[in-house]
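Provenance and format

Records in this collection were gathered into a single text stream. Each protein contributes a sequence line and a C-alpha cell line. The two records reproduced below are adjacent in the stream.
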Amino acid sequence: MPLVSANMTSVTGPRLAAAMARRGGLGVLPQDLGLQELDAAIHHVKQASTLYDPLVTVGPDATVRQALSLVLDAPGAVITVLDEEGAPSRCLAVAALRHALPDSRLADLVADALPAIDDDDVTDSRAAFALIEAAGVEAVAVRHHGVITATLSARSAVRSTIYSPALDAHGRLRVAAAVGVTGEPGARAAALVQAGVDVLVLDTAHGHQEQMVQALREVRALQLGVPIVAGNVVTAEAAVELAEAGADILKVGVGPGAMCTTRMMTAVGRPQFSAVLETAEAVRDHGAHVWADGGVRYPRDVALALAAGASAVMVGSWFAGTLESPGEIEFDETGRPFTSSWGMASTKAVEQRFRRLDSFERARKALFAEGISSSRIYLDPARSSLDDLLDMITSGLRSSMTYAGAATLAEFRERAVVGTQSAAGYEEGKALPVSW
C-alpha cells in the first residue's frame, strides 16, 4: 500500500495510524506531541489488532448525540457502551440510533445488542465473514475469553482478504513518528525507536538547510536500525545532499497541501509533479526513495506521483475528513458532519507547538504564523471511514496501472506515459455530478 498519512495533528493520531497499518499503509505521528503522548500512541498501535476493528466506546450515561460525534450512521458502524466499571457491556449498531432523540441515554435505549463471536472460532478473514453472514447482521462484537475486546464488520472481514497489514518483525502493526531538527533530534529519535517506532521522519518546512544535514548525520550515526525520512525538499540538489547525509527517503513537496499558504505568502514552492520527477531521478543511484507529500485531491494525483517516481504518497487533509482522524465530528447548520483541519504553520499549530512557552512568547510567535488555522473537512456519508477512502484510492490506482499495462509499481513508473493538457482538458475529464 503506497500510502502514508501526514504527520499533522489534525490527521494522524493513534487510531488512524493503526487503521493505516492494518491496510498496509503507514501513519506518521506528528512531532508536536510530547514524548509521553507519543509513547502512548505508539503503544496503542502496537497493541492494536491486525484483523478486528477497534472499539469505539462511550460511558453508560452517554447520549445519542455524543455517540454520533464519534461514529456516523454507516453500514457496519458500531458503538460500544461501557458499564459503571468501565468495561464493555454491549455493542450497538449505530443504525439502531437512527430514530432516537439526540438527548436519549444509550443505556435507556431499547435496542438489541449485536451478536458476539469468540475470537477462538475465527480461523481467518473468510471464516469471520461467514460467521457474520450467518448471524444476519452487518457487524458483530468479538469476545476474548468472554470479554468484548473488538468488533468486526462484514466489510472489514472482506478487506482483510484484500489488504495485507504492515507488520514489524514481531507481527505488530508498523508506525512512524516525526522529529524536528532543532533541540536534540538524536536523543528524541533514540527514545522513539526505543518506544517501538519503525520509521523516523526528520521534518521541517525547508529541508535544504544546514540544521537538517546536521540532524541527519547525528541520527544516522546512532545506527538505530530503522529507515530515516527527511524533508521537505523540491530540488535534485537538495535531495542528493540529504541522501548523502543519511536519508533513506526524501519527503518532497513545498506548498501543495490543502491547508498550506506557503506559495501565496512567500512565492516559494514548486509544482508537485515536477518536484517528484526530478528528485526521484536524482536519488535513484544513491539507493534512496521519494515520498510525494501533498497535493492529493483525487486518486489520479496518487497515480501521477507514483508514475513520476515516488515510492509512496503522503496524504493529509483528505484523511482528516474520516472517522479515524483525531478531530471530533461536528455538524454544520444543515446537519452535515465535518471535522476540522489546520496547517502545521498556522496560528493553531504554532500555539500547540509552543504551548510550554509563556503566554507572551506564544503570542509573539503567533503574530507571524501562516497557513489555514481551521478548515471544515466534510465527511462523505458514502465514504466516512479511512477504509472507504483507501478502497477508492487503490481502486483508481489499480485501474490506472492496468491502463499502463503494469502489474507492479516499478513497471508502472517505466510504462506510464505522462503528457500535459490545458485547463479545459482537465475540466472535461471531471464527472458530472448532476444531470444536464
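Adjacent record:
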Amino acid sequence: MTRIVIAHRSTFIRDVIRLQGVPRGVYVVGEAVRPTELIDLCRSECPDVAIIEADFEDGTEVESLLALVLATGARAVVVCDDPSPERLTRILALGASGYLRHDTTPDQVLEAVEAVAGGASVLGPTATATILEQWRRLREPALLPGVGVAPTLTPRELDVLVAMADGLPAKLVARRLGVAIKTVENHKIRIFDKLGVRSQAQAVALAIAHGLLAAQPATISAGE
C-alpha cells in the first residue's frame, strides 16, 4: 500500500487519482490547497509520497517547502510547467524525486507515484529532454569548445600543444623545444585563445577532436 498527500490545483485530477489509485493500492490520505495544509498533512499522515504544485495561489513556491516535506519522510513529486532548466535543476537539487507537467495524465501520475514510492526517480519527457541537453552542454562546450571550426595554429604552437598532450609542465616543454619558459607560457596563452579554452585539458581534448595532434613528431623525449 502506498499513501499519498496531494497539493494539486485541479480538483478533477485529485478526484481521479483518488478513485483510480485504490485498485492499485495507492491511497490518498490528504488533500491540501495551502502550503501550511500540505506541511501539516505530511507531518500528521506521514505519507510515502507527496504530489505538490510548483506554485501555490498565495505565491509560495515549492522550493521553500521541499525541505519540510522531506523531513517527514515523504518523497516528493513536483508538478510544474516552468520550462526553464534553472527551475528544474533547483527543484531536483532540493530533493524532489519526480518532476511532471500539468498535462500528465492521472494514470501517468499514479505510475510515477508507484515508482517514486519504490525508491526510483521519475522525470516527464520534457524534463528528461532538459536534463539531457544540460548534460550535453556541460560535456561538449566545456571539453570541446568550438569543435565545429578547425583552429589554425602555427608550427611552434603545434609543438607546444603536442608537448602539452604528453603532460609535460612548462619547464620540460621549454627544454624539449629549446626555448625559454616564458616563451612557452606565451605560446600557451595564444593556443588557449585560438581554441577558446581555459585549461590544458580542454586544449588537448579539442586538438584530438580536430586531429591536430596526428603525426606530430616529438623533438626530444621527456626524459632528455
